[in-house]
Amino acid sequence: MQNHERRQFGRRTTRTYAWVEMATRPRVSCIVMNVSETGALLELLDAVPLTIQFRLVVDHLPGCAYCEVRHQYERRVGIMFIRELSPQYSRNRSGMADADRWR
Length: 103
Description:
By secondary structure, this protein is an all-beta fold. It is built from no helices and six strands. The N and C termini lie far apart (about 35 Å).
């Protein structure tokens, strides 16, 4: 069986605690399991549905990452970093999607 890796850039294991911030819901605790230049895999501490777009905030990093859900299965969520949030998900904050900042 072949491993079909679709990512253009490699993943880096992080296991970093973070928060998912959604415009219309309470924030959700999560762990960033791994991160690449284009996205990440999150594990939510509680299995809750997320909005399509949200901000990912890590306490020890400045700013936030704007994200879009690519897939969600129970507590595991694959996300893609995006440049900005659509107006219905926006709350004026600076973006951050540089994978090197996750170390």
